[in-house]
């Protein structure tokens, strides 16, 4: 880094402290680091650690939009943040938000990409040329006349990035770009970010929970933030060889976890932040197989009574359309099962969830819940048994305060005030929200809002719980806390849980059965280990081969399916 010492950093934090006006404690404490032009920096840490606060300092939202006490020096490309407007800093930093829907302003993709150019008064011919250039670079030129809100998550991400790139800012800031993407789209996005950064020499800052996928962007340095402090500033390999991730509660790549379970010292490897470039030693492959062979891989069975039956279910949002949204769907679920539902955007996952919840009615076929055809029941009657938690928390929230939102269902059921308070407090504690019980919902992060919506349904004690992407945007600590709670509900209360998810670890570690949807059809009813050993199903579900699968494929006497099953069995046993 000697060459860096001879030039000024493009981003500088020097003894930075910050406290929001609405908070009683500091959110950033004595933060100091430099970022040099052309670097790609990843910022990780648990929720509430201060990652987003650092990002807001970089793009000028602090102190312009989020008032508070900012001390120390924050400079961006020579501009002091404390004395610069958001407009001034927008010329230096292009920000891609976590919630891409909140960033769209145009009716079409072309209009959205061109928005900043129109504001700057760029003449029409030049504007069209710039939009064409970036849409081709990001491979969305065939979507220019499409409506942004009709696109897949990965396509939306590319549109948002294009809308930033037209500004030609030297710094790109990505706020959890993987939060709402399936694994295949997430991997594509990180490779795209890497390509753009290298080809155009952008300085790139990525704030992200999903470390293993984020490392695909060829990260130069990782900043680890915990409780407002910078606890590590190192290369990815240096970080992964340390114990810092475990100490702060960030999940390490799963292939490293498996190696450690097998007793392998990863410090002997020069490069550990990308499995495909590690070149495992033969003796270590043998150690991994020896360890895995000692873990039982028991067969799962559930022979309890059937609680849910989907019988030849057909549905279409447009009755005049020859292509049905759901076509001849058949499956049954036994009491107490914990099932993952997977498939690419538009496959029919959320539609079947809405159907089970009674929000939509079939063209033909039926859904039976607790021996009753729900077509004969009102949504309120169905809600006594089935709880549905949507992916976008903003579509569920109707109150301004957290306590009021979680208590609403109990109020509607006529509970008395004391019982409501006790039940709500218990649920908020379980969901990690009790310290914020008197906060306005508007003050929460996207991930925290998701937990509020989960709490608002869990408080009602449904028999069947359906969750749409329950762990998206959650850090590892809250992810684990939430999943262990759902696991507890499943085991202790025999609650039946269906989870629409793209989280490969969730489906492998917490579910024994997976329903794979594609183009409105139920493509497979299988188990996660078999799914991750079937390339055709993975492609249909828009998943990717996990590092565990790749590791398992190196074992001479054990299949990847068997290895994944044994790894997850071991994980469940030590939780």
UniProtKB/TrEMBL annotation:
Presence of keyword Chaperone: no
Compartment list: Cell membrane
The keyword Protease is assigned to this record: no
Domain ABC transporter positions: 11-252, 308-544
One term under GO cellular component: ATP-binding cassette (ABC) transporter complex
Its biological purpose: Probably part of an ABC transporter complex. Responsible for energy coupling to the transport system.
Coarse class of the protein's main subcellular location: membrane
Record-linked PROSITE patterns: ABC_TRANSPORTER_1, ABC_TRANSPORTER_2
Membrane-related topology note: Peripheral membrane protein
Protein name per Swiss-Prot or TrEMBL: ABC transporter ATP-binding protein
Pfam families according to UniProt: ABC_tran, DUF3744
Family: Belongs to the ABC transporter superfamily.
Keywords for the protein's UniProt record, in alphabetical order: ATP-binding, Cell membrane, Membrane, Nucleotide-binding, Repeat, Translocase, Transport
Gene Ontology molecular function: ATP binding; ATP hydrolysis activity; ATPase-coupled transmembrane transporter activity
InterPro entries for this protein: AAA+_ATPase (IPR003593), ABC_Co_transporter (IPR022216), ABC_transporter-like_ATP-bd (IPR003439), ABC_transporter-like_CS (IPR017871), ABC_transpr_CbiO/EcfA_su (IPR015856), ECF_ABC_transporter_ATP-bd (IPR050095), P-loop_NTPase (IPR027417)
């Amino acid at each position: 880094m000697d060459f860096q010492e001879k030039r000024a950093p493009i981003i500088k934090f020097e003894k930075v402290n910050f406290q929001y006006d609405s908070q009683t404690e500091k959110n950033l404490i004595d933060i100091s680091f430099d970022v040099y032009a052309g670097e790609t920096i990843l910022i990780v840490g648990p929720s509430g650690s201060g990652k987003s606060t650092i990002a807001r300092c970089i793009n000028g939202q602090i102190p312009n939009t989020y008032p508070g006490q900012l001390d120390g020096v924050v400079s961006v490309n020579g501009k002091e943040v404390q004395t610069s407007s958001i407009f001034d800093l927008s010329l230096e930093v292009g920000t891609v938000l976590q919630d891409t829907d909140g960033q769209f302003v145009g009716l079409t993709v072309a209009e959205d990409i061109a928005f900043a150019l129109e504001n700057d008064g760029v003449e029409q011919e030049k504007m069209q040329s710039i939009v064409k250039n970036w849409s081709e670079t990001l491979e969305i030129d065939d979507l220019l006349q499409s409506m942004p809100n009709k696109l897949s998550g990965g396509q939306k991400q590319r549109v948002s990035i294009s809308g930033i790139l037209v500004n030609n800012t030297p710094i790109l800031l990505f706020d959890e770009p993987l939060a709402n993407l399936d694994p295949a789209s997430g991997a594509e996005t990180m490779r795209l970010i890497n390509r753009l950064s290298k080809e155009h020499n952008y300085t790139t800052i990525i704030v992200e929970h999903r470390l293993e996928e984020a490392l695909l962007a060829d990260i130069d340095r990782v900043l680890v933030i915990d409780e407002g402090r910078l606890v590590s500033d190192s290369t990815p390999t240096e970080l992964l060889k340390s114990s810092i991730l475990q100490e702060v509660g960030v999940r390490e790549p799963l292939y490293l976890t498996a190696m450690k379970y097998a007793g392998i010292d990863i410090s002997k490897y020069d490069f550990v932040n990308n499995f495909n470039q590690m070149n495992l030693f033969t003796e270590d492959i043998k150690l991994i197989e020896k360890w895995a062979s000692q873990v039982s891989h028991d067969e799962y069975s559930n022979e309890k009574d059937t609680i849910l039956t989907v019988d030849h279910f057909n549905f279409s949002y447009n009755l005049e359309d020859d292509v049905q949204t759901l076509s001849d769907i058949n499956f049954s679920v036994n009491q107490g099962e914990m099932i993952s539902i997977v498939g690419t955007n538009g496959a029919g996952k959320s539609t079947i969830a809405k159907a089970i919840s009674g929000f939509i009615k079939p063209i033909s076929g039926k859904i039976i819940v607790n021996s009753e055809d729900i077509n004969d029941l009102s949504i309120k009657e169905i809600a006594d048994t089935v709880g549905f938690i949507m992916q976008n928390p903003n579509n569920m929230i109707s109150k301004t305060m957290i306590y009021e939102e979680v208590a609403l269902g109990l109020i509607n059921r006529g509970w008395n005030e004391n019982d409501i308070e006790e039940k709500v407090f218990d649920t908020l504690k379980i969901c990690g929200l009790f310290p914020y019980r008197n906060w306005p919902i508007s003050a929460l992060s996207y991930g925290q809002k998701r937990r509020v919506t989960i709490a608002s349904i869990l408080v009602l004690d449904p028999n069947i719980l359906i969750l749409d992407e329950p762990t998206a945007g959650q850090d590892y600590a809250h992810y684990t806390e939430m999943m262990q709670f759902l696991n507890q509900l499943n085991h202790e209360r025999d609650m039946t849980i269906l989870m629409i998810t793209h989280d490969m670890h969730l489906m492998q570690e917490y579910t024994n059965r997976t329903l794979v949807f594609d183009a409105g059809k139920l493509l497979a009813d299988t188990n996660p280990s078999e799914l991750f050993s079937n390339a055709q199903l993975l492609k249909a579900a828009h998943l990717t081969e996990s590092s565990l699968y790749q590791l398992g494929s190196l074992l001479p006497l054990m299949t990847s399916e068997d290895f994944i099953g044994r790894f997850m069995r071991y994980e469940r046993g030590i939780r």
